[in-house]
Structure formats: structure tokens, C-alpha cells
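ok here's Lytic transglycosylase domain-containing protein, seq below lol
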Amino acid sequence: MIRLIFMAFSIAIMGKSPLSEVKVEKKELKENTIIDSDLLAIDFCGEAIPLSELRIAERYQKTIRNYDNPAFRKLMTKTQKRMKIIEPILKKYGVPADFKYIPLIESAMSDDVKSHRGAAGYWQLMPSTAKSLGLVVNSTRDDRKHLVKSTHAAGKYLRSLHRQLGSWTLVAAAYNAGPSRIQNRMDSQNKDDYFKLKLNSETTKYIYKLLAVKEWFSNPERSREWVSGSVVEKLSEYRAEQSKIRMALEEELIKISADS
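and the structure came out like this:
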């Protein structure tokens, strides 16, 4: 696009032909595809999600469809009371409410889930991390299974991650993969955007899971639109139309340049 703008500018300043003379045959193009901007206005902790990018939209659609089932709807109803306990605790530590959905994707809001790596409880904290945050973890007591205590620990941890990484989206990635791993990826790839980083499969999917769960809770109508497939379909059509327009414009500009 930059190249086309520069080309058009060059032609104009030479006095050969103004950009207004460039014509694109409308018959070769479809009518503009209308996409409701609200369907793309999804954020995580106030950070915009680039859903106008087709690959990101497709991944999000796939994820939100995975949660469109009776089991998840039952879980949503079951966990409402616990969510009300979690949110004010996170707020105390300056952590956005969107993180209250982590226990749903980590443990299905259950206290007795334990991973093969040793993470346990609602927030699936590792023993060493839990202890460093002031929780007691031993053979007779495990504070990771206590909703209030473990949420205070999670709030402290998430706050410290944000101080280190500066982005809540990256904090979510670090919660899943570990801060050192995310920082190493950022340094080696010279990028600080979650959606541009090359991460392992699990961490790549993590933010999409959080977004999908959040959306089903907060905006079920918009979620159903995404499940229907209409958003990605329209976005794909729009991208195809824009590509045709760019190609046609470039051809016209090349012709003008050749005739000058």
C-alpha cells in the first residue's frame, strides 16, 4: 500500500495525471461487504484484539465454537457465585476483571484438579510459585485449594507479571508458559506483541480461550454471531475485495506511469 501511495504521489507531482483520474472497473468488484464493527470490538483487559486479521479471526471463531456446548453452559451457571468472590480480590491488586476467567480454563473452577507437573487448585499454581506467594503447601495443608487464599496469591502474581511485561495480554501468556519463557521469546524475536510472537501451541491458544470464556459470559449474543461463521465469512470476502481493488489500482497506476 505504501508503494502504491508513493507511486501515485510521484505521478501527481510530475503533473502527468492526478489520482482522481485512476478508475477501477466497478463491475469487476462486489459490493462492499458490511461488517458490524461491534463484532470486532473485542478486547482483553482493555487491550484491543486484532480480529480484523483473518488468521486471528479464524482462530478465535474456532475457539469460541469449542465452548458452545451444554457442559460449558452448565459450568457458567455453577460458577457464578465463585466469580463474585474472585473479582473484588483481583481488583484489590489492580488486576483487571478479565482474569477472573482463568480458573475456568485452568481447573473448571475446581479445587481438586492437579496436573502431572504438580500445579493444583483453582488457579493451578505450581508448589514453588504458591509458596513464594505466601501459601502453605505441604502434606497436610494446601492453600491452593482455598478459593480466597489462592486468589489473593494469584492477584499478587498477576500484578508482578504486569510490572515485568507491561501488557496484560502478555501476562496471560506468561501465566500459562512462565514469565522467563515469554521474556526469552520476546527478546529473541524482538517483539512485544502477543499476536506476533511465535509461541508453543498451548500458549498460542491460551488468550483465545480466555476471550471465548469472557465473551460467553459477557456478550452471548455476539458470541453466537461468531459461532455462526458469518463474521469470518464476511471478513474473508472483504479481504478478497480489498485485494482486487489494490491490484486494479496498481495496474491503472502502472499504465499511467508507462504512458507518461
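fwiw Confidence is low (pLDDT under 50) at residues 1-22, 24-31. kinda neat tbh
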